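Reviewers of the previous submission asked for a worked example of the structure-prediction workflow described in the proposal, so we include one complete record here. The input consisted solely of the amino acid sequence. No template or homolog information was supplied to the procedure at any stage.
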Amino acid sequence: MEPLVRFSENFKLAGDTLLNACPVCDSTEIGELWRLPQNRLSHVTHLNAPGSPLHGLYLDYLPTLKSPQEIFKFDICSHCESIFLNPKFDDQAHYAHDTSKVESFRKKGPGEQRGAADSFMRMFPDDTTVVVDAACGAGQLLHLIKIDRPDIRAVGLELSKPSVAFMNGELGIEAHLTDLDRDDLDSVVAPGSVDFIVLQEAFEHVRAPLVVMRKLVRMLRPGGRMHFTAQHYGDNELQIRVGEPIYINDAGLDFVIKALGVELISLKKDIKVRATVEKPGGPPPRAAGSGRGEARSPATPAKPRRARWHRRLWSSIRRRLIVRRPTR
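From that input alone, the workflow returned the following structure tokens.
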């Protein structure tokens, strides 16, 4: 008899929803990759490793040995190479009543999102008037954008009832109670009407990421942009957290980009993918910028026009210096 069956009272397979197909590409060609013993810590812990990319990483689970204990099984997809928790937890019902984001906003304010807000505003297409934050928490990001750009229509889509009430009431931000997986988003935001969409820290938590992202791309006008993040595995050091149930690599990212029919204009990769894509049909794209952590791959966009212009200018200067060099 299989040990996990024989000792199921002491070592229980975690999760309440068994997946028969990959949550990213819907392929049924999936198989078990590993099983991890994990226990939830009584307090959130952060790694103290200055100089390491893991410095400051939060941990809410560790493989401490005790009985009874939950065992977490991860599968891998042979098609898009995504790694995912299976069985998974379908915790949307619980999150619908979550108050943690509102409590965090009231305690800390929106300042933690200042860097992200500034970065996103630099990525906005010209003449941006409508911005959507999908899975927006308590509206920290939209609040900062509205402070700097009061002319923008900022729209939050959120599953948490307390968060939506907080945004509509105390913040005065347009927010809609939305299940991104199951709801018809056309009735909330008109197709082809949005300039910029943020899907941050949500790819791994929705039931079907690609289904959700297709709905969001439908919202975009031609030339509109969407920024999204996802847990990334590859040559980087990434601690597996059972609270992050989906991980993609470069093959998975390529699959998502092609399936959406969008153009990748900005990409940064470390323990997360941070990608900005553009819906075809708009004016010639301008690069959204680059930074440390950007990696070249089949999914990496072309270099910005400014970089090409800079190279041409420098080449011209070098030629003039060579011509004017005095002879001995």
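The chain has a mean pLDDT of 86. We consider this example representative of the routine output the project will generate in years two and three.
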